[in-house]
């Protein structure tokens, strides 16, 4: 059942993004930034916690989940070290995901022959 809920929640996030791409003049970059910002706002308001309870990885893996991780990291660090945590919390909260993306991207570039679009 967890897999199904993760699929539905993650799929709905992707459907919303696809509808925005198809029906608006927003660029994909603006949509992605909007999703991260929405994740930050919903995380700061503790609304995204509810979505994570339902969708688990379906809610944490897409871009709003990254924004949520930024917001939670900042809030935790501000509670621990004060105002300086506003600058360091997001980095600490998302360091694992960013590191994994860099490492796996590098490994894929080594294993396959990356090409630019023509």
TrEMBL record:
Name the domain of life: Bacteria
For this UniProt record, the keywords arranged alphabetically read as follows: Membrane, Transmembrane, Transmembrane helix
Q: Does the keyword Ion transport apply?
A: no
Q: Where is the chain membrane-spanning? A: 6-22, 29-48, 93-112
Q: Is this entry keyworded Ubl conjugation?
A: no
PANTHER family from the xrefs?
STAGE V SPORULATION PROTEIN AC-RELATED, STAGE V SPORULATION PROTEIN AEB
Recorded protein name is Stage V sporulation protein AE
Q: Which organism is it from?
A: Clostridium omnivorum
